[in-house]
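Recap slide: Anaphase-promoting complex subunit 10, sequence and predicted structure.
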Amino acid sequence: MTEGSLDTKDKIEIGRLATWSVSTAKAGHGLNLLRDNNLDTYWQSDGPQPHLVNMQFEKKTAVQQVSFYCDYKNDESYTPSRISIRAGTTHHDLKELACVDVGETSGWLNINLEDTPGSGRPPRVFLMQLAIISNHLGGRDTHVRQLKLFATREPILSGDEHIPFTTPEFLQHSIMR
């Protein structure tokens, strides 16, 4: 996990590919504010913990990094202190990929899912869930100002480059006689 600035090097934001939902939201502080690219607005939960943000994809999608923005200076007891990132096919088979203790941070928190033990590559998921387990100072509801999902940016081939075929089936056709 890194803190401070948003880490977008060699990554592409894929949040637009998902259908988003939250467990609860306070009137005037709904899900739309979580994705509006404005650090002055925030989603606020309204109910018992854990607070959930669900991101559902149409097809299996590789998610390399989850980044979210918290502002302890302004939000204090509304700031998450422990967050779990879960992934799976449906709500019934979610597995925890990472559990993070968040300090009194004001800035972006970037969680690299390639660092998940035993994986070595980003998980491919239909459903990703961010669960806010607890808040600082024993707070009940939570504020999250932004949430972004990233995948590895694929290199773009120029017109004179060849597609890097590696399977034997493709390689047998790569040279003309």
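The mean pLDDT is 89.
The longest strand covers residues 51-62.
(End of recap.)
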